[in-house]
Design goal:
Radius of gyration: 18 Å
Structural class: alpha/beta
Number of strands: 10
Helix content: 25-40%
Number of helices: 10
Order of helices and strands: HHEEEEEHEHEHEHHEHEHH
Shape: globular
Distance between the termini: 58 Å
Strand order of the largest sheet: 1-2-6-3-7-8-9-10
Strand content: 15-25%
Largest sheet: 8 strands, mixed
């Protein structure tokens, strides 16, 4: 196959463009719609990108720091509206999840990763599937440490998809920043290769992974197999609950199983979300079934 043919496959080029740049979606809901007082906050990432978020005060010394998936934001994803109906046609809404934490006494810090929501543009707008966004995770931890009201709080992490990858990479690159973290929920971490393989199979593109690799490398300088948390997962030592839609048509369960198996934490659990094939249903799971989240965080507070 010629270089020209490889460079102009519309399916793989489109997938590579999405991985490389994502797209911004609006923050449509706010905590006060759910009866929660909140503060609009902003703080710098490790490399200075301005990150926007909410701080929702609770009634305890416990804090959960929350991030999100691509192409969502701290609110979720407006998948019920055009032009964003491409992942099932329904809304992802994290506010019920925050409300469940709030009603259990937790303080919540939720923020937009770079190039998403209302946060600043970083790296020329390129997405690193965690390889760049780990800097935002470090920024959120440092911000919580600098606030007088959260500095000494028992802190846990709720990291979602792109956010989960970013947290895992951050733990490998800066383990010293996580010494005070009590536990984590990693919801649907993902590697690029199985995602691309599924897409290529659905489109009938036999050399899809090779085409994607060339296209994404030209856009970002990263090869496909670099876009994975697997090489970094050994650095996860805090108690970690990994969650994933088992029959997710966009990826393969073997990928999440491998990520989970590589995690070094002595206390870990893998929870398969059943009854759907839609990845974005997984993002709504804890808002609809918060007890699993509350039990995990509550049982790892030292």
């Amino acid at each position: 196959m010629t270089t020209e043919t490889r460079a102009n496959n519309p399916v793989m080029d489109g997938m590579a463009d999405f991985f490389a740049k994502s797209y911004r979606t609006p923050v449509l809901r706010r905590p006060d719609e759910y009866g929660m007082a909140y503060e609009d906050v902003f703080f710098p990432s490790l490399d200075g990108v301005t990150l926007e978020g909410w701080f929702i005060p609770g009634k305890s010394d416990r804090l959960v720091i929350c991030n999100h998936f691509m192409p969502g934001n701290r609110y979720g994803y407006p998948g019920h509206m055009e032009p964003w109906k491409n992942f099932g046609g329904f809304e992802v809404n994290f506010l019920p999840q925050y409300k469940a934490l709030h009603e259990a006494g937790y303080n919540v810090l939720a923020y937009d990763l770079r190039n998403h929501g209302r946060s600043g543009t970083g790296n020329g707008g390129l997405v690193g599937i965690g390889l760049l966004e780990y800097r935002d995770v470090i920024g959120s931890l440092r911000y919580a440490k600098l606030r007088h009201d959260t500095a000494a709080m028992k802190t846990s992490l709720l990291s979602v998809c792109l956010g989960a990858n970013s947290t895992i990479v951050a733990m490998a690159k800066h383990p010293e920043e996580f010494q005070h973290i009590y536990s984590m929920i990693a919801l649907q971490p993902v590697s690029a290769r199985p995602f691309v393989e599924r897409g290529a199979e659905a489109a009938g593109v036999a050399e899809g992974p090779e085409l994607f690799d060339q296209a994404v490398f030209k856009l970002t300088g990263f090869h496909m197999d670099e876009l994975s948390p697997i090489p970094y997962a050994h650095a996860v030592t805090v108690p970690t609950l990994v969650m994933q839609v088992h029959d997710d048509v966009l990826t393969k369960p073997s990928d999440v199983q491998t990520i989970y198996d590589k995690i070094s934490a002595k206390e870990k659990q893998l929870f398969w979300i059943e009854g759907t094939t839609l990845r974005f249903e997984g993002y709504n799971y804890l808002g609809r079934n918060p007890q699993l989240m509350l039990d995990w965080f509550g049982s790892h507070l030292g």
